[in-house]
Amino acid sequence: MKVLIHDLGEGFDEILSEKCDRMISANGKYAPCQGCFGCWTKTPAECFMKDKLKESCRVIGTADELVIITENCYGSSSPAVKNVLDRSIGVSTPFSTYRGGQMHHTLRYGQHGILTIIAYGSITEEESMTMKQLAQRNAINMGYKEVKFIHCESAEKARDML
Amino acid sequence: MKTLMINASPKKKMSVSAYFLSVLKFFTFGGVTKENLRNKGDHARLLGALDGADNVVFCLPMYVDGVPSHVLAFMKEAEAYCREKGLKVNVYVISNGGFIEGNQNRVLMQIFENFCNRSGLNWCGGIGIGGGVMLNVMRVMFFVYIGLFVLNMIMGNPVKDDLIELAKGLGVVLFFNLGVFGLSAAMGAAIRKGRSFGV
After folding, report:
1. pLDDT tens, A84-109?
2. Model confidence pTM above 0.90
3. Of the candidates B39, B73, B101, which has its C-beta nearest A102's C-beta?
4. Inter-chain CB proximity A34 and B11 less than 8 Å
5. Do B62 and B51 contact (CB within 8 A), yes or no?
6. Is residue B186 domain-resident?
7. With contacts defined as CB-CB under 8 Å, which chain A residues touch B63?
8. What is the number of structural domains in chain B?
9. What is the pLDDT of residue B159?
10. In a domain, B198, yes or no
11. ipTM of the complex
12. What CATH architecture is A2-160?
């Protein structure tokens, strides 16, 4: 299953939904993670907040291929996309293991195929380096075998990459 | 030197970031204002506080290898505000993750450095703390050990045995917090002198 997370705006939703199996539109309207760890303990893989991100862990967790389209924000994803990722830590469990020589959480849904991060907007050399490192760390953390990082000048070009 | 300390943990209670800031405040010796950053409602107040500050310390948890979304949203507003006002504040960061390796916070530090470069602020480095949750439990254990000691005294157990048990317990708590105390003292000294701390 191919899952897409994007912050291109609701105007792109219809076109993009045809290019993936499931899509999460990061529109910035969702409340941020409260750090309660309820999605690990009380209601596994489910957020206590009753909005569209309530079951985002299950959607992202069952993806073979995850594509993230995000505006660059200091070498990180945009606040809206990061909010979706923060609210989806239920893709792992509270238990720990070693992957890539470092401590990480065990994966609730097992290993996945490929993680593609498409960043758009202005980016400095340092931010590009940061984003590549972040993409690699995210891939290890979320259990992706492969990771790809692409930068595009504009949102339209990022959309066309799909 | 006016120092603004921002606790960016979304938790209202039992936040380990609040604990780290309390330790750092002790070693900074005055001139400190503490504020919380939990949602958009805090932005205007924090930007106002940033205006008159010489130093700002962000203390935050690491979420998904990076900066939590509510902090990124504030950073975007702060960038525009700092550039407009031409602020030259020294920025320090304390971040903590649940994993035992403190160097897993390195990417988060780079994001803050990039933010400083865009905003015209002075990046002065930070501390990446591993095992944040464990240190929070240790903080609770400090009071549990003292409580048990008092309880045993009331129940008439031999004082010598109780004291040995208390010393062992507090020794373990102190041992695991030595890094926090040592690095906070070093960061406190850097803040007082307005110098870079490194990562």
Report:
1. 999 999 999 999 999 989 999 999 99
2. yes
3. B101
4. yes
5. no
6. yes
7. 33, 35, 82, 85-86, 89
8. 2
9. 79
10. no
11. 0.95
12. 3-Layer(aba) Sandwich (3.40)
